[in-house]
Amino acid sequence: MSNYADYNLWVNKQFVNWLSPKSDELLYTEVPSSFSTIIKTLDHIWSTEEYWFSVISETDLFEKKPENELSKEEIFSGLLNSSAKLKHFINSLSEDDLSKEVKIINPWFECELPISEYLIQVINHGTYHRGQIVTMGRNIGITDASNTDYNFYNVIKAQK
Fold first, then answer.
1. Does residue 67 have a pLDDT over 90?
2. What is the crossing angle of helices 115-139 and 72-91, to 10°?
3. Domain enclosing residue 27, as ranges
4. What's the number of domains the chain is made of?
């Protein structure tokens, strides 16, 4: 689980480094997808990480400004800070802590699963939307995304 949380921070850094030099015009271009722009999709990944962090840490949900009130730099920074917070929290947990079940009751679903399952959920969710961002980017001419697969991360990490 610690490696997976480390990967999540690494992959979000890869995306921020890839997208930071791109023009606002490209990052705010509307493209048919779950969210209409790359920036809105990144903001959604960040918001969802914050939600799941509040679940697994059993703390209050971080209140953030709406995406339309944030600069792209604030969204990039917020996503990376959220991923670092998640990483540090997960890395501080024992095996027993990761097995602890947390009950969720919200308007969309109810469940009670181990923290480790929620971590898989939040990172898998980010992977889904990062894939959308790559496709959105290709549709507007951004074709230089790097390989961010989990296995690729493990291979390059092992080579260091």
1. no
2. 150
3. 2-159
4. 1
